[in-house]
Amino acid sequence: MSYMTSIGSYAIMVVETFKKPTKWHVMRTLILKEIDELIYGSMGIIIFISFFIGGVVAIQTALNISNPLIPKNLIGFATRQSVILEFAPTFTSIIMAGKVGSYITSSIGTMRVTEQIDALEVMGVNSLNYLVFPKIVAMFLYPFVVAIAMYIGIFGGWIAGVFGGFSSSADFVEGLQLDFIPYHVTYSFIKSVVFAFVIATVPSYHGYYMKGGALEVGKAATVSFVWTSVVIIVLNYILTQLMLG
Amino acid sequence: MIEVGDLYKSFGDTEVLKGISTSFEKGKTNLIIGQSGSGKTVFMKCMLGLINPDKGYIRYEGRDYSEMALAEKRNLRQEMGMVFQGSALFDSMTVEGNVMFPLDMFTRQSRSEMQDRVDFVLKRVNLVDAHKKFPSEISGGMQKRVAIARAIVMNPKYLFCDEPNSGLDPKTAILIDNLIQEITQEYNITTVINTHDMNSVMEIGEKIVFLKDGWKAWEGSNKDIFRTDNEAVTNFVYSSELFKKVRQMYLEERN
Ligand SMILES: Nc1ncnc2c1ncn2[C@@H]1O[C@H](COP(=O)(O)OP(=O)(O)OP(=O)(O)O)[C@@H](O)[C@H]1O
Ligand SMILES: [Mg+2]
Questions:
Q1: Does residue A4 lie in a domain region?
Q2: Chain B within 8 Å of A28 (Cβ-Cβ)?
Q3: Residue A46 falls inside a structural domain
Q4: Whole-complex ipTM
Q5: Which range marks the domain in which residue A235 is found?
Q6: A206 in any annotated domain
Q7: Is residue A191 assigned to a domain?
Q8: Ranges assigned E (strand) in B190-240
Q9: Mean pLDDT of B167-192
Q10: Pairing between strand B207-212 and B215-220?
Q11: Which of B79, B85, B101 to mutate to test the interface with A (most CBs of A within 10 A)?
């Protein structure tokens, strides 16, 4: 029952976010700030993780091919498929739920407990639009992050495969091009747009409606990470079933 | 003029407001006094619409606030200024940014017009050298003054101050009180102040509402408050030794 109430108030929050828009010149500054914080600020960790995950996938695949009948280009093929379909969009989103999500929950939660949100409301500002809308807009750039994660992941696989002595560069690249289905990239980008929305709004919800003091801000950030991840994993399953099943 | 009628508010099982009716007049400094925990902040937040009362009405110039749609409420709120008990400054902005924020949001003034207005109100609250500092870099008393500056920068019709001078030294406290009273009279604002500071009561208590455990136990002016025989009020007012002596002298003189 209380889950239903939460889902209901989450939906109301999302609707409210799009009402009574903040003046454009104020909003523009907010959006740029959030792009810097949420997107640009996450680039480093995403690139780092993608590179090594891509490398590990290549090595794992190589080590599991013992049968000489299996072509060597499978390494490139498997790396491409795993990185494009799952690692870049989903795994990266879980990382973002931790990094960006806890930032969002704690920054909005702190504003709640120090009455800064009340102060906005008293002035006649739509605090949800002011705080959450710029985060949603900034997160629309998230597919670019995922695209970079794809490139870096595959690059990491190539480095590990070729320099680890598991595959020749030619085999790897042949594998990359083997049976390429562009729709898989579309599927991946659609997923990342949905996840971006989840990463912007679910942590905002946990921060905005929190009660208590500084200690509860920390707890809210943890709870928010758990729920954001759960929602991402469930939506991943549903979207995969709908789009590929 | 703000009229409040039969206002009730509970949180779970705790009844905080138990049927408060009163009114606050224009151009006057109206005080809500009472012990810590008597419900002053909750009462004020109900008037602002930050807390929804369970029952009762709040009328601004006859318009019923609790029946307004959210959009209408927000328009009315642009005519209100509020100084929160904990200042509630935006900590991502400088002092100047905080005060400029409402102007930036709701007016079409040019940068220099806004800057002039900000300089003016900051000077008004005796804060001249902190423009570029962040709230975390200034003292609690300075934060209070920035909060007051932010609340008055839009020339509000209604000014709410939740303990504007708590945590300030006596001299600055009186300065703030006088400032609020001056602004109130100058711009004919309806001002409501929560306080438990007896200095403020004597200085600026043109109308006083005394709350006790969520009830309105008494109301009157600072002229009446030292003469009343209402026990709850005298207990509160004469909790300090100094005032007890003053009261003693008054009673002896009378007899
Ligand atoms: N959000 C809330 N949830 C539950 N109880 C609350 C809430 N806000 C206030 N209360 C309770 O309402 C009562 C009145 O609180 P309020 O903050 O209005 O007191 P106050 O008169 O402003 O006190 P002070 O002078 O210390 O600021 C307190 O007992 C408090 O515990
Ligand atoms: Mg209070």
A1: no
A2: no
A3: yes
A4: 0.89
A5: 23-244
A6: yes
A7: yes
A8: 190-195, 207-212, 215-220
A9: 88
A10: antiparallel
A11: B101
